[in-house]
Every structure is written in C-alpha cells, then in structure tokens.
Amino acid sequence: MTRIRRGYIARRRRTKMRLFASSFRGAHSRLTRTITQQKIRALVSAHRDRDRQKRTFRRLWITRINAVIRERGVFYSYSKLIHDLYKSRVLLNRKILAQIAILNKKSIYMISNEIIK
C-alpha cells in the first residue's frame, strides 16, 4: 500500500503560529507545543497590559496636573480643580489638561482662575 500524503490545513495552521512566534527565543520559536503555549501567554499578557497601560497613563496625567496646580497655590490641588471643572461644566479631559500643563502653564492658571470666579 502506498503512503498517503496529509492535507495542508494543519501545516498552514502551524506555519501561521511559527510566524507569530518567529521573534521568540530558543525553543519558544521552534517547537510546536511550546509555540502554542507561548502564543497563549503572549496574547494574555497583551490583553492584560492594554488595561494596565490605560491606568498608568491616567496616573501620569493626574500627577502632571497636580504638580503644576500645586506650584500656583498651597491650598489648591488637583481634586479641587477637577471638582471646579465639573461644577462649571468645562469639558476638558485629563489628557488634554496634562498636555496644557506641560506646554503652557499660564493657560492652566488662566483656566483655574476662570473656574474659581
């Protein structure tokens, strides 16, 4: 009896996985089983760290805004600024406020003075 050649579907799936793991080191890019394990691990880490990245950037923006606001006055802080922004219905998010704080401190001071009035 002659040998039966296998189909191409499984080979195509494995080559796709190999392309995904081609930048991994050692057996993680060569052996099929470890490639599948590392692929799962990489995708889990990517999913988790997308949320973590959002958190860390928000913390960074808050820190920058707070640092600039506290330079102005001892009794004025980030939380009071955000509270006053909400009361006066000014639609500026933390990312934009942090950019303004870095690039142009005077405009942050102007915004805070207008809100306080």
TrEMBL record:
This is Large ribosomal subunit protein bL20c. It comes from Bryocarpum himalaicum. Gene3D superfamilies: 6.10.160.10, Ribosomal protein L20. Belongs to the bacterial ribosomal protein bL20 family. GO terms for biological process: ribosomal large subunit assembly; translation. Keywords: Chloroplast, Plastid, Ribonucleoprotein, Ribosomal protein, RNA-binding, rRNA-binding. It is found in: Plastid, Chloroplast. HAMAP family: Ribosomal_bL20.
